[in-house]
Amino acid sequence: MKRLRLVSTFGRPTPAVGSSATPAMLIGSRSMRRSLCLLLLVLALPASGAADRTEEVRATEIAFAKAFADRDAKKFFSYLADDAQFLGQRNTMHGKQAVIAAWSEFFKPAVAPFRWQPERVVTNATGDLGFSSGPVFDEAGAQIGTFTSTWVRQSDGSWKILFDGGSVCPTAKQSAQ
After folding, report:
1. Angle at the Cα of 159 (from 122 to 116), degrees rounded to 5?
2. Dihedral sign of CA atoms 66, 70, 71, 75 in order
């Protein structure tokens, strides 16, 4: 029976089926091991980077909601991108100044009229766009809707909100129909 010899991708012959391999053939050279380790490290980096960016978006959404709850309009509005678009129930606010004009009304009461928290957060593969979504609650803690926000990573590493919108939960009476 003839034994076949294979050539590995590193250019060295692999041991023939049924033959014994030398330790050097199994272990490879130090430089080859280093190269393999570096390759594995590079392949692992994007996955951990994406997870880190997702947590950055989550933390930013939480801080954005906290600024609203704390009645800190200046901090809240600092999260807006200049070209932010907020979809209201009746109209769309185009640009940071339009959002500030409309949302300043929500800062007039001493207590925030609603609150929200992110449940689902994702980022794209390059880590420069983020999406967050979750429930919106009234002052009594009843869920009244859901929100969706799209975040853009800035050159300084901060995140700004570009798109924001939401939907109202149907009432029990509407759900029964």
Report:
1. 65
2. negative
Residue environment code for 134-161, b if the CB has 16+ CB neighbours within 10 A, otherwise e = bbbeeeeeeebbbbebbbbbeeeeebbb
CATH number of 52-176: 3.10.450.50
Tokens standing for residue 143: 């869920």
pLDDT digits (tens, 9 = 90+) for 68-86: 999 999 999 999 999 999 9
Question: Are 90 and 110 contacting, i.e. CB atoms less than 8 angstroms apart?
Answer: no
Residue 108, both tokens: 């007039």
DSSP 171: P
Predicted TM-score of the model (pTM): 0.70
Q: How far apart are CA 95 and CA 21, in angstroms?
A: 68
Angstrom distance (rounded) from CA 140 to CA 82: 33
**Residue with the two structure tokens 């967050």:** 132
